Amino acid sequence: MSEFKNVTVTKKANVYFDGKVTSRTILFADGSKKTLGIMQPGDYCFNTAAAELMEIIAGKLQVQLAGSDEWRDFGAGSSFAVPANSSFSLKVAELTDYCCSFLSE
Q1: Domains in the chain, ordered, with CATH?
Q2: What is the rounded CA–CA span in Å between residue 50 and residue 75?
């Protein structure tokens, strides 16, 4: 899906790591939520309460999920899931455009 229709967009940006990671919240009529964002090159760690699906629209990064020693490569067109009440670390190699879907369990 390259666009979302009939949504509400929160005007205030979500800003992390001194502005190196930013996103906007998209709310859907069914109550679901996504964020669309950009990550500049760098190393980051995020905690999450809800399960997430991270879709990489453009760019390249490596991901390490909590409890794993393995770093996995992801690029444009790929995605990875993050369990609820967890964390994940990122090594962003180049400017990365992403969509994060918050999943209900």
Answers
A1: 7-103 (2.60.120.10)
A2: 23
Looking at the DSSP bridge assignments, the partners of residue 30 are none
Is pTM beyond 0.85? Reply is yes
For residues 96 and 80, the answer to whether their CB atoms sit within 8 Å is: no
Each residue's pLDDT tens digit in the chain (105 positions)?
A: 678 999 999 999 999 999 999 999 999 999 999 999 999 999 999 999 999 999 999 999 999 999 999 999 999 999 999 999 999 999 999 999 999 999 975
* Residue 28 near residue 4 (C-beta atoms within 8 A): yes
* Neighbour tally for 68: CB within 10 Å: 11
